[in-house]
Amino acid sequence: MGVPDRSRRYARPTMRLRTFAPLTALIALVAPAVAAAVPPPVTTVAYVKYTSGAQPPQVWATTDGHAPVKLAANGYQPIVSPSGSLVAYSVPTKTATKLVVATAAGTGKRTLTTAASVGTPVWSPDASKLTAVIGSELGRESLVVLDVATGAKRTIATGFFNGASFSPDGSRLAYGRASRADDQGFAGDVYVVPLTGIVPGTPANVTADGASVAPLWGPESIVFSHLRTTKGRRADYPKANLRSIRPDGTGLRILTKLKIPYLLSGLYATAFSLDGKHLLAEYGGQDHSEAWTYDFTTGKARDLTGKTDEVTGFGISRDGATVLAGTGGYDPQAKADVVTYSFAGKHRKTLIKNAAWASWSPGI
Predict the structure, then answer these.
(1) Beta partners for 69?
(2) What is the pLDDT of residues 91-119, one digit of tens each?
(3) Structurally, how many domains does the chain consist of?
(4) Which domain holds residue 355?
(5) 136: helix, coil or strand?
(6) Residues β-bridged to residue 34
(7) What is the tens place of the pLDDT at every residue in 338-347?
(8) Distance, CA of 174 to CA of 192 (rounded, Å)
């Protein structure tokens, strides 16, 4: 596979596999989120620009089409808040990684946490919290929730994680967790934990099959990927298809039954439209990444553009009509562009040239 976690040179994926490290980056591709329930006042797009030579990537942002602002001269993994007013991004140092929050105008920069490794952060719907996976380069990790205003940090769970997503009202958190790493993926499950009160509530299993990863909380259900390992083919990636389930663990539905070729894996859900009818997902493999969509009305999954062209998905608009994407393949550098497509894969428009790994507040 090969979708790097924002910047291959600087970021470690949220879901860490030893033999299949590229797969982990695909799951961490986009901080999973449902489009904000409150209409955002601005449309902000944050992205990474690669400079020439050995210079590190830069984080930039533009709001409502105004002139871009450089947020970090050395950074990656920008994630725009639902309101569009804030951007979270990671900054590497010689010994650790800092999770920084700033306004989209580049002011008010604050470091929320520092660790040897900081996985892809996820905003709460009201932008008051961020969740992230922190830890050392090897070994067990911690899933934490950070208060954006005060910097206060809660540890939700420890183990090995493969995605997290807030409920639409922000009162609960779904996450994928395993107690150990495995050569062919993670033998893990999806959990839900209440976040209200002084301390978090007790996590509850939503799945119990030991093969469920990468939850994404939608308006009516949680979508996740069910892994199937390939017997006798240890060099292959685990195969993943989409399922949905209610937050109480009932109403399990199989959404896709794709026949996934050798050295490929997917689908992994990455973004929901506000009405829950349109889903963005990612399909990847050995040096490969493709944006896919799933239509809950028709029950159909398809490659976004209908062809193998290494177009990677980053986000979806509130109405589900527009997909934010990037060209340049699984490891884009200066030749990549940030683009949009219609949900049907038509009407491509270039937003930002020579840019990659974008995030937006979908104010469309």
Answers:
(1) 61
(2) 999 999 999 999 999 999 999 999 999 98
(3) 1
(4) 21-360
(5) coil
(6) 272
(7) 999 999 999 9
(8) 4
